[in-house]
Amino acid sequence: MPQENMQWTPRQDILTFEEIGRLANLLAQMGVNKVRLTGGEPTTRKDLTHLIQKLRNISGIGPLLLTTNGAALERTAVQLRDAGVTGLNISLDTLDRQRFHEITRRDQLEQVMRGIKAAVAAQFESLKINVVVMSGINDHEMCDFISTFRDDPIEIRFIEFMPFLSNDWERGKMVPYAQMRSRIESAYSLRPIDSGPNAVAKEFEVEGATARIGFITSMTEHFCDGCNRIRLTADGHLKACLFSRTGPSLRDAMRAGARDDELESMIREAVNTKWAAHPPMTQLTQTNDRPMISIGG
């Protein structure tokens, strides 16, 4: 969370539930079969369960996932599951209370941990914890994450630190996949899992544990050639890649009266701009025009 200079998007600029539903239905007709609500923080959206139910009723949509900071899960996990969410990704970069406060600007670690327990009890089809690993900050905690959640049906995903606007990225802070894996294998035996050609993570079983782990290797071993994801931002723009500049505004097109076939053409044109491989990590802050927290989607 940035310490200052946060700019909040005016309410009228954010897609309405009806607009999201229209676009999701169109994308499903075009072959999209998985939807993820992310952010920002989606659980702050008023009447979120109504949007989930709307998406759940769209023909062709299978997994309906949600990425959250976990702060609200203690009271909302069951509501989200009952509304139709099939899986959660919970962002948690540290198990240390003081370090959590430094990273998030909030003293909510215990609240998030209770939320994770509530999510486990709710028995979602998939439950993952996203850990952005940063050298000198939390890289020494990787094995602690495994020992903490080893008996839970959770996948712990260790993510290479990626450059975005305003996140103080430095190459020296990025812990490469090979180094992360080597450190963990000094304490645990790992067995690779075949995750399929479109997977974004290299996944492993951990011997003697229920929990699994994954590595998202965007910086050192990109998976662009198998990436089949696009992002619709909270304010209605398309991003063909998380690192690319913001694409066309489907919100503006809809509000100007665009037909579905015109929207489809805009979507296909944007998808055709997907990179075969993203630029080197040192150039990525020049290609992305939004901080990660303001991308939404």
SS element count, helices: 10
Strand order of the largest sheet: 1-2-3-4-5-8-7-6
Total count of domains:
1
- Estimate what percentage of residues fall within beta strands: 15-25%
Instruction: Extract low-pLDDT stretches.
Output: none
CATH-defined superfamily: Aldolase class I
Taking the sheet with the most strands, its summary is: 8 strands, mixed
Return the structural class: alpha/beta
List the secondary-structure elements in sequence, H or E: HEHEHEHHEHEHEEEEEHHH
Dominant shape: globular
Mean pLDDT: 90
Count of strand segments: 10
Oligomeric composition of the shown chains: single chain
* Share in helix: 25-40%
| Distance separating the two termini | 17 Å
User: What is the alpha-carbon Rg in Å?
Assistant: 19 Å
Instruction: Please name the CATH architecture.
Output: Alpha-Beta Barrel
CATH topology: TIM Barrel
CATH class: Alpha Beta
